[in-house]
Design brief:
The complex is a heterotrimer of chains A (about 300), B (about 325) and C (about 325). With about 300 residues, chain A is an all-alpha fold. Helix content of chain A is about 75%, strand content about 0%. Chain A is built from twelve helices and no strands. In chain B, helix 1 packs across helix 4. Chain B is globular and about 85 Å long. Chain B is about 75% helix and about 0% strand. With about 325 residues, chain C is of the alpha/beta class. Chain C folds into two domains: about 230 residues, 3-Layer(aba) Sandwich (Rossmann fold), CATH 3.40.50.300; about 70 residues, no CATH class. In chain C, strand 9 and strand 10 form a beta hairpin. The chains are: A mainly alpha (about 300), B mainly alpha (about 325), C alpha/beta (about 325). Chains A and B meet through helix 5, helix 6, helix 9, helix 10 and helix 11 of A and helix 1, helix 6, helix 7, helix 11 and helix 12 of B.
C-alpha cells in the first residue's frame, strides 16, 4: 500500500522539481530570452532553417539534382539568385534542399548518439564499480582520438555515403553525452530520496527510469543542443573531404567541395553553401549559448 | 595512458578489419583476376585468422612498424616521419596564435564586461566557432591569394625555392637552425593563411573559456582580499585572477588541440600542404589500410601526449591537484 | 562639521545595489565613528548592512553596488575625495580587513608565505621575496609554526589556521584600523574563542583600532569598547559596551538583547516579532516601525535622526528625540 501511495506522489514531486527552472520562473526565463538579443536571433535562424527544410520544394521551381548544361556556371541573377554550378543546377535550390539533408543528419545523429550516450552514462553512473570502470575506459578510448579523424576513419571504412556519415558521427558524439550523463547520474544517486526508494524496495530499473533519468537529463539536453552545430560542421567536413555524402547529393559540404575548382571565376558555387553552413551553425550556437545562460543560476540573478 | 593507447589500437584495428570494406578490389580494381586477388590477400596477410592479424598489428605498432603503405609503397612510419612535421608546424603555429589572441580577448572581455570590446570579442568568438574551417580556408584563399595576390596560396614554400636542409622536417625550425633566412621568410608567408584559418577556431573557444572562468574567479572572495591589500588592478587581474582562471582554460586548450588536429586535415587539404592529415585522407579514399591505421594511431598518440602534458600543467597551476 | 572622533568618521553613508529585482537600498545614511586604538563592535541581523559598511569604509563596493553619497573621514582625509590610486595606498597599508570565510579568502594557487609577504612588500615597496622572513615572523606572531605553514596552500589549512593566517596578513602592515568581518562565525565554537582571545592579545600589543563586525552580542561584549547597532541599513544606537548592555534605549536593541540566552537568566527569551524589511521597497520613515512596540505616528513617515540622548549615547528613535517631528 505504502508503495502505491508514495510513488505517484514522489513522481509528481520529482516532476515538479525537475520542471522547476522552466516552471517556477518561466516568466523570468522568457524575459531573459527577450532581453538576450543574440538568443532571439539564434531562435529565428533555427526556425527559418527548419521551415526551409520542410517547405523546400515550394520555395523553388527547380530540381536540386537535374542537370541543365545550357545554363551552367551562371553568375547570380534574378533567375538564379545564387548562380548555377558546372552542371547548370540552381545553387539556391541546392542550398534549400541541402537544409533537408542537414536536418536529417542532425535529427538522426542527435537521437542515436544521445540515446547511446545517455544509456552508457546513466548505467555507468548508477551502477558504479566495475561496470562504471569498463564503460568509462571505453569512452576514454574513443575520446583519445581527435573527433574528426575518428569520424573520417569510420566513414571511410564503412564506405562514403550519407547513412554511413550518420553512423560515423554518432560513433564519436556519444562520448560527450555519456560523460555528462554519468556525472549527473552520480549526483542524483547520492540524493537521500534515492536511498529511501531503495529501502522500500524499488527495483533498479524503476529507479533508473523514473528517478535517475528524468533528474539527470536536462543538462545533457542542453549539451545536445549546444552540439548540434558541431554535428553539421563535422558532416559537412566529411562531405568536403569526399568521405561523406556523395555527389549529386545537395549536402552543403559536398557543394563547397564541388565549387573549389571554380573558386577564382565562379566564386558563388562554394560561397553560398558555405554561408548556409555558417549561418545555421551560428544559429545553433547562439541558441545554445542563450539556453545555457538562461539556465545558469549564477547569471539568473 | 598505455591502457588507453592499447584500446585506441583496438578501435583502429576494429575499424579497419571488421568493418566490411574491400581494399583488395579497391587496389586492384573491380574485375581483377582471381589469382591476383589471392596473391594480394596473401601479401597483406588477410588470410591469417583475425587474432593473428591483431597480434601482428599490435606488436608492430609498439615498435612503430605499421607495415607498408599500399599507395606510396613506403613503410608507413617513414611516410609519417615525412608528413608529420608539416602538420606539427601548422598546428603549433595555429595553437600559439590561438593561445595569445584567445587569452588576450578572454581577459579583456572579462575585465571590460559588457563594454564594446567584450561585445566585439564575443561576436568574433561565436563566429569563429560557427565557420567551417574548410570554408574559412577557401574564403581566405579567394581574397588573399586570388583577388589581392598578397599571400601565396598553396604548398609550404615557393615553387622555385628549395627547402632548408632537413633536420627536423619543420621548415621554420630547420631554416632557423641553418640560418637560411630567405627560406624562413617564405615558409612563414606560406603558413600565415593556414595557421590563421586553423587558429581562428581555437581562438574562439579559448577566448570564451577564459572569459567565463575569469568572470567566475573575479567574483571569488580572494579577489576581494587581493583588492583589500591595495594591489594595483593589473596585479589583481594577472597575478591573482588569471592564475586561477587558467586552470579551466588549460583543459580547454588541451581539448582544442584535438579539434586543431582534426582541422589540420581540412586545412592541409584546402591549402595543399603535404601533411599527415592529407596523407590519411588520401589513404582513406584509396582504402590504404596500413597508412590509415598508422596515421590515425599516430594522431591519437600525439593527442594523448598533449593531454598528458595538460595534466602535468594542471598540477603545476593548481596546488590542490598535487599529491 | 567637526569630526566626532580622531580616526574614522563616517556620516550619511548611502549605498545601493542594482539587481534585476530593483535597487536595493543597502545603507541608508549610516553614521559611525572611532577613535585611534578603539574597538568598535558593529552588530545587527544578517542583511542589516554590517558587511557592506565595512567594505564601504575601504571603498571596496563594486558593481552592481555603488556608494551614492556620504563622507568617510579617515585620519584627517575624506576617502570619498581620493582617487583609486590614492585609495590603494591606504588599503593594506593603513587599513586592512579580515573576512568571514578565511579559506575562501585566501588565494588557492599561492602559498601562505607569498600571500603575507605580498602585503608587506607592497607597504615597504620592495620585492616580495625579500619579505619572506617578515612573513614568517608574522606567522609566529599569530602562533603558527612558520617553517611548516609558510609553504602550505590554503586547501591544506584548517579553518582556525586559515583565520590565523588572515589575521597575520591583516596585521602585517601594522594598519591603523583593522576591520574584522565576522572573523569567527565560520569556525567551531572552541576555535572561535581561541581566535578571539588571540586577536585580543595581538591588538592590545600593537594598539591598532579594530572594527569588529558580528551578529553575536556576546562576542562584542567581550571584545569591544564601543558598540554600534545597525538595523536595515541604518545606525540605530551607539554607546560604550557597558552603557549599551546596562541601558539599551532603542526598541530594536532592547529586543536584540532579550533574544540573547544567558546562564542564570530567569526572564523568557523573546524573539523580535516580524521580519526584516525588504530593502528593495523599504517602509517609509523608521525602517523598524512595523516591528516596533512603541511606534508613534511620526515614525511611519520620517526617518528619525541619530542623536545624542545621553553623553556618548546616540539613538535614532522619535520616542527619545528632542525633535518630535519638525512642525509640531
Amino acid at each position: 500500500m505504502a508503495e502505491i501511495d508514495t510513488i505517484p506522489k514522489t513522481k509528481k514531486e520529482l516532476w515538479l522539481k525537475r520542471m522547476k527552472p522552466y516552471f517556477e520562473d518561466l516568466n523570468h526565463t522568457i524575459d531573459l530570452w527577450k532581453r538576450n538579443l543574440l538568443a532571439v536571433i539564434g531562435t529565428v535562424i533555427i526556425a527559418l532553417f527548419i521551415l526551409t527544410a520542410i517547405f523546400a520544394p515550394l520555395l523553388t521551381p527547380y530540381s536540386p539534382i537535374e542537370q541543365n548544361m545550357s545554363v551552367k556556371l551562371q553568375a547570380p541573377s534574378w533567375e538564379h539568385p545564387f548562380g548555377t554550378d558546372q552542371f547548370g543546377r540552381d545553387i539556391y535550390t541546392r542550398v534549400l534542399y541541402g537544409s533537408r539533408v542537414a536536418v536529417q543528419i542532425i535529427l538522426i545523429i542527435t537521437f542515436v548518439s544521445g540515446f547511446i550516450g545517455i544509456s552508457v552514462g546513466i548505467i555507468a553512473g548508477y551502477y558504479g564499480g566495475i561496470v562504471d570502470d569498463i564503460l568509462m575506459r571505453i569512452t576514454d578510448m574513443f575520446l583519445a582520438f581527435p573527433r574528426l579523424i575518428l569520424a573520417m576513419a569510420f566513414a571511410a571504412m564503412l564506405g562514403p555515403s550519407l547513412v554511413n556519415v550518420i553512423i560515423a558521427i554518432s560513433c564519436v558524439m556519444w562520448t560527450i553525452y555519456a560523460r555528462l550523463a554519468r556525472a549527473e547520474a552520480i549526483k542524483v544517486k547520492k540524493q537521500p530520496y534515492i536511498e529511501s526508494i531503495k529501502s522500500i524496495g524499488g527495483s533498479d530499473l524503476r529507479i533508473i527510469f523514473l528517478h535517475i533519468l528524468p533528474m539527470s537529463i536536462s543538462p545533457v539536453l542542453v549539451q545536445i543542443t549546444l552540439r548540434m552545430g558541431t554535428i553539421i560542421i563535422t558532416a559537412a567536413s566529411l562531405g568536403f573531404l569526399g568521405l561523406g555524402a556523395q555527389p549529386p547529393s545537395p549536402e552543403w559540404g559536398v557543394m563547397v567541395s564541388d565549387g573549389r575548382t571554380f573558386l577564382i571565376d565562379q566564386w558563388w558555387i562554394s560561397t553560398f553553401p558555405g554561408i548556409a553552413i555558417a549561418v545555421v551553425v551560428l544559429g545553433f550556437n547562439l541558441l545554445g549559448d542563450g539556453i545555457r545562460d538562461m539556465l545558469d543560476p549564477r547569471l539568473r540573478r | 595512458m598505455i591502457l588507453v593507447l592499447f584500446g585506441v589500437s583496438c578501435i583502429v584495428f576494429f575499424i579497419s578489419h571488421i568493418i566490411p570494406a574491400d581494399p583488395v578490389s579497391a587496389i586492384l580494381g573491380g574485375n581483377a583476376p582471381e589469382e591476383a586477388i589471392e596473391k594480394m590477400e596473401e601479401k597483406l596477410g588477410y588470410n591469417d585468422p583475425l587474432p593473428t592479424q591483431f597480434y601482428n598489428f599490435i606488436t608492430g605498432a609498439v615498435v612503430g612498424d605499421f607495415g607498408v603503405s599500399l599507395r606510396t609503397n613506403n613503410p608507413v612510419m617513414e611516410d609519417i616521419k615525412r608528413y608529420f612535421p608539416t602538420t606539427l608546424e601548422l598546428t603549433f603555429l595555429a595553437m600559439i596564435f590561438a593561445i595569445i589572441t584567445g587569452l588576450t580577448l578572454g581577459i579583456l572581455s572579462a575585465v571590460f564586461r559588457n563594454k564594446m570590446i567584450d561585445q566585439i570579442s564575443r561576436i568574433f568568438s561565436i563566429i569563429g566557432v560557427s565557420m567551417p574551417v574548410f570554408w574559412t580556408g577557401l574564403l581566405l584563399l579567394l581574397f588573399f591569394y586570388y583577388k589581392l595576390g598578397i599571400l601565396p596560396g598553396a604548398g609550404r614554400i615557393g615553387f622555385f625555392s628549395s627547402p632548408p636542409d632537413h633536420i627536423t622536417g619543420m621548415y621554420l625550425v630547420d631554416s632557423i637552425l641553418t640560418g637560411n633566412w630567405s627560406a624562413f621568410k617564405e615558409t612563414i608567408v606560406h603558413l600565415v593563411l593556414p595557421a590563421f584559418c586553423l587558429g581562428f577556431l581555437a581562438t574562439a573557444s579559448i577566448a570564451r573559456t577564459t572569459r567565463s572562468s575569469m568572470l567566475d574567479v573575479m567574483k571569488q572572495e580572494y579577489i576581494m582580499t587581493a583588492k583589500s591589500k591595495g594591489l594595483k588592478n593589473s596585479v589583481v587581474i594577472i597575478r591573482h585572477a588569471l592564475r586561477n582562471a587558467l586552470i579551466p582554460t588549460v583543459t580547454i586548450i588541451g581539448l582544442t588541440f584535438g579539434s586543431l588536429l582534426g582541422g589540420a586535415v581540412l586545412t592541409e587539404t584546402v591549402f595543399s600542404l603535404p601533411g599527415l592529415g592529407r596523407y590519411i585522407t588520401q589513404g582513406l579514399l584509396s582504402l590504404d589500410y596500413n597508412s590509415v591505421m598508422g596515421g590515425t594511431l599516430y594522431f591519437a598518440f600525439v593527442y594523448s601526449l598533449v593531454n598528458l602534458i595538460v595534466d602535468i600543467l594542471y598540477a603545476v597551476l593548481d596546488p590542490r591537484m598535487r599529491v | 562639521m567637526e569630526a566626532r572622533a580622531n580616526l574614522l568618521d563616517v556620516s550619511n553613508l548611502n549605498v545601493v545595489f542594482y539587481t534585476y529585482r530593483g535597487v536595493i537600498k543597502a545603507l541608508n545614511g549610516v553614521e559611525l565613528w572611532m577613535n585611534k586604538g578603539e574597538r568598535l563592535g558593529v552588530v545587527g541581523e544578517t542583511g542589516c548592512g554590517k558587511s557592506v559598511t565595512s567594505k564601504s569604509v575601504m571603498r571596496l563596493i563594486e558593481e552592481p553596488g555603488e556608494i551614492l553619497s556620504g563622507d568617510i573621514i579617515f585620519d584627517g582625509r575624506n576617502l570619498m575625495d581620493l582617487s583609486e590610486a590614492e585609495m590603494r595606498k591606504i588599503r593594506g597599508n593603513e587599513m586592512s580587513i579580515i573576512f568571514q570565510e578565511p579559506v575562501s579568502a585566501l588565494n588557492p594557487v599561492m602559498n601562505v608565505g607569498f600571500q603575507i609577504a605580498e602585503v608587506i612588500a607592497k607597504k615597504k615597496n620592495t620585492r616580495i621575496k625579500k619579505q619572506y622572513p617578515a612573513a614568517a615572523e608574522m606567522l609566529e606572531f599569530v602562533g603558527l609554526d612558520s617553517e611548516r605553514v609558510m609553504k602550505m596552500y590554503p586547501h591544506e589549512l584548517s579553518g582556525g589556521m586559515a583565520q590565523r593566517v588572515m589575521i597575520a596578513m591583516g596585521l602585517a602592515p601594522q594598519p591603523k584600523l583593522l576591520i574584522a568581518d565576522e572573523p569567527t562565525s565560520s569556525l567551531d565554537v572552541t576555535i572561535q574563542s581561541q581566535i578571539l582571545s588571540l586577536l585580543d592579545d595581538l591588538v592590545s600589543e600593537l594598539g591598532n583600532a579594530v572594527m569588529l563586525i558580528s551578529h553575536d552580542m556576546g562576542v562584542v561584549a567581550e571584545f569591544c569598547d564601543k558598540v554600534l547597532v545597525m538595523y536595515a541599513g541604518n545606525s540605530v544606537e551607539y554607546a560604550s559596551v557597558k552603557n549599551l548592555f546596562r541601558n539599551p534605549i532603542h526598541p530594536y536593541t532592547k529586543g536584540l538583547l532579550k533574544a540573547v540566552p544567558r546562564i542564570g537568566r530567569i526572564d523568557e527569551l523573546k524573539a523580535i516579532k516580524g521580519t526584516v524589511p525588504d530593502l528593495v521597497d523599504p517602509p517609509l520613515g523608521c525602517r523598524f516601525h512595523k516591528r516596533c512596540p512603541n511606534v508613534i505616528d511620526i515614525c511611519k513617515v520620517e526617518l528619525p535622526p541619530f542623536e545624542e540622548i545621553e553623553p556618548d549615547h546616540y539613538v535614532a528613535c522619535y520616542n527619545y528625540s528632542s525633535d518630535k517631528g519638525g512642525d509640531q
